[in-house]
Amino acid sequence: MVGEARPGYELWRPNRAKSSSQLLRFTVMLLMVVSIVLMLVIIFGGWSVLNGGGYWGVISLGIVLFYAVLTIMVGRWSRGAITIAVALAVLMLIFAAIGFESWFARDKAGFTEAALPSDLLGLLTFLVIPVQIALAVACSIAIKQEWHVEEERPIGSGDPGATGDAAPDTTGSASPSAA
Known about the structure:
2 strands
């Protein structure tokens, strides 16, 4: 069965123990949190002038919520969340690339001013672009690290720190309590 080990064996995911995998997981999570913060500032800073009123604001908040759920799933080593994050990063990259110029076009007379200056919202929207590129690249690398690979090993044969067992004595000397 998938996800179950034979009696006397434990499942081990060797690729998750690598420092490169742990660093990349942290990087992906950090980029997703940065994306969430940027999007929230843009949404609430420009809420009053969003086309379609609160309708697009609610959709935008749904995307932010989805990013938050994906961040939690990446923190739990979910490989499937990585592939969805790549797709969502590309989608947000397209939205930001199309939309950032419209914030800069609002500096003319006759436009309603948002809660934050339009130039600042344009800059923040532009900053979403490199963050989403970095997120898509980091997620693509993470997919290749194969976090999902499982191996069986005899119980207690792995890393002593992972199971809480004391490290074996390799010096050949007996412990003082045994004498």
